[in-house]
Amino acid sequence: MSNDVLALADDKLMLGHTQSDWTGLGPILEEDIASSAMAQDDLSHATVLYEALGEDPDALAFGRAAADYRCCDLVTVPDELDWAMATVRRFICAHFATIVLEDLAKGEGDIPERASRLLIEQRLQTEHLDAWIRRLGRGGDDAKGRMQHAFDTLAPHAGMLFEAIDNRADRHARWCAAIASPIADAGLTMHTDLPDESVHGGRRGAHADHFVEQHAEMTQVWAEDPTAAW
Question: Tag placement on the chain: N or C end, fewer CB within 10 Å?
């Protein structure tokens, strides 16, 4: 279970970091605020999950080498400030996080209690994003084309969410079922296979260059002065 907690925490940390680039740049005010709020939620969720591992959350977030992070590289694939790409990535990751938190919430002890609290906010994220997938997919030829391009671009990366985690086949099936309805309602398509277990990616520390670049940017202050506070 601790491997799943660390993987999800690292996903949340990096997704919150990359999505914060959209602050002030959302296509409408409502979504600008919502996107910023979801980025803040992801960063706070990462903190809660790091604390559940019994270690200093700042040290876990900023004090590790890139190869020690267990996030999927999907969370740092450059979106080139393309709103469709950013929305589809968050939608894919939000449904994955919901499934993992549902599993972590079962049982007794500290981690289930924490996961149950985070799950409330996580489900609000998925409901919001489901609505936007439907809205944009039905928004005319240009919007639909942009969304389908985003799904086609990100689909090859999405399966790696399930690398090196518990119950990967079951979780992949549940995730596919969860995302199928909003995608179909929007008139869009996405197909993602479960990668072979021999494929190594971010969850085993084999990160893409874009992750390494994001990691260097995010940890710069900590690397220069681990005692800094603000």
Answer: C
